[in-house]
Design goal:
Length: 392
């Protein structure tokens, strides 16, 4: 089990009134108080760095940790504060990422054209490419048998072709991988899908689609193979999304049983996430976990379990198409009006509590808003102390 740094708190008691004491008594009381405060300050200074180092996760940036630690220790102890707290997420790294569309991965010419069209004035450092997208299609030349036979592969570009083109354009490559919201592979391979507890038939959602199940050994083996294939390539980071259960009705839960509705059903998701995180690190690729703001708001985000997850950074996806003008959740209607920036600011305010244990990057996406509006929406980040963003 993972223990997170929740911050060390030092509670200071108020000084008592010493009316009626002799001058000598007052002097001695004051001297003892100064010595006590000095001792507390020294202990706080001495303990900060070991405590930070103890709680640092695998995959953290050591240089960033050193710089942040130096900033922290340079600050004087606030004598008037009631509580002194060590900041969380000291190893945060700033991400400035632009995400390409799937059309960019049709062929080399399309990829070069998309890279040339990137707005360099935004200051992007990374380019994210959608290698396996929501729905299950794969946009690179995968060598995995199930990917080929199911018809998932949609591009002849190799992973080497993609990373080389991105680096040649002056950016660092990031892989985007959708995990469980895959309707292609389980259509061909029935044992990858959710199955009903009564007769073992494949379950379908309200749209008539199958999903990869985290409870299926073959399904987890398949997506692990995809991740291994990508981790072996030259990607700096990998953003893994759709590690979630489908939106299930009461009838769906009855059909599928306790495995998707029990009190510990989230373990299937956290176990899968931690396994992928470890395998990515083995391939020198840092994994970021993406979750949907819509899913958090509608309470369909079981994977976020701070005491269990090894992942450091969570990408919060604000999809303006998905949000629309209003979201109904738990009997409450949340209205989203105004500019994209105003909508984003309101939504972050509603869901940020869920991500307080993580470094956070925010993705702004949607086809109903322009690229300029998406870029402008990132201005909402400053209200919440976030600095990392993904556009597209």
């Amino acid at each position: 089990m993972k223990f997170r740094n929740k911050g060390r708190k030092i509670y200071k008691t108020k000084e008592k009134n010493y009316y009626g004491k002799t001058p000598f008594g007052k002097f001695m009381s004051g001297a003892l108080t100064v010595l006590l405060l000095g001792g507390i300050g020294f202990l706080g200074y001495s303990a900060a760095e070991p405590l930070i180092n103890y709680t640092k996760k695998r995959g953290d940036d050591a240089s960033a940790a050193s710089e942040t630690s130096a900033d922290f220790t340079a600050e004087p102890t606030a004598a008037t504060a009631a509580v002194v707290t060590i900041p969380e997420n000291l190893n945060a790294e700033t991400y400035k990422i632009v995400s390409l569309k799937v059309d960019a991965l049709k062929d080399s010419a399309s990829l070069q054209s998309a890279l040339s069209a990137i707005n360099v004035n935004v200051g992007y450092e990374y380019v994210a490419v959608p290698l396996k997208v929501t729905g299950g299609e794969i946009y690179y030349s995968s060598g995995i048998t199930e990917a080929q036979l199911s018809g998932a592969v949609q591009s002849s570009l190799t992973l080497g072709d993609i990373t080389s083109a991105v680096r040649s354009a002056g950016f660092k490559p990031v892989a985007e991988i959708s995990m469980l919201e895959d309707h292609v592979a389980p259509y061909t391979y029935a044992d990858m899908a959710y199955t009903t507890i009564d007769d073992g038939s494949r379950w379908i959602d309200a749209r008539g689609k199958h999903w990869l199940s985290p409870l299926s050994d073959r399904a987890t083996t398949y997506i692990t193979a995809v991740c291994d294939e990508i981790a072996a390539a030259d990607f700096d980071r990998a953003i893994c999304s759709d590690i979630k259960f489908p939106q299930l009705t009461a009838n769906d839960k009855e059909l599928l049983g306790e495995s998707v509705s029990g009190s510990d059903c989230y373990l299937a998701l956290t176990s899968l996430t931690n396994n992928l995180y470890s395998r990515m690190l083995t391939g020198d690729t840092t994994m970021l976990l993406e979750v949907s703001a819509y899913d958090i708001l509608t309470e369909n985000c079981d994977v976020i379990q701070p005491m269990l997850l090894e992942v450091n950074t969570v990408v919060l996806d604000i999809d303006f198409d998905e949000i629309g003008e209003a979201v109904t959740a738990g009997g409450t209607v949340y209205e989203f009006t105004g500019t994209a920036e105003e909508k984003a600011s309101k939504l972050i305010g509603l869901v940020q509590y869920k991500l307080s244990d993580y470094n956070v990057a925010v993705r702004f996406s949607g086809d109903t808003v322009t690229e300029e509006e998406l870029i402008k929406a990132k201005d909402a980040l400053s209200d919440y102390g976030y600095t990392s963003f993904i556009i597209g």
